Amino acid sequence: MSLKWIDSREIAIELSELYPDTDPKLILFTDLRQWILDLEEFDDDPKHCSERVLEAVQMCWMEEED
Q1: Which domain holds residue 43?
Q2: PANTHER family recorded for this chain (predicted)?
Q3: What is the domain-level CATH number for residue 45?
Q4: pLDDT per residue over 8-24, tens digit each?
């Protein structure tokens, strides 16, 4: 399965498993973008990333933490 920018929830789940001690509210978007790009399953054009996409991933991650 490959992940795309629109897969906010699935990306958030992957990141929460990789970075269990990280508070998603404190992540810089530059770091978040790179972490997503570094995911083995991620396969999308880096140019399609926007602040809105990163916010969606961050929100999903925060929901996963609750």
Answers
A1: 8-65
A2: PROTEIN ISCX
A3: 1.10.10.600
A4: 999 999 999 999 999 99
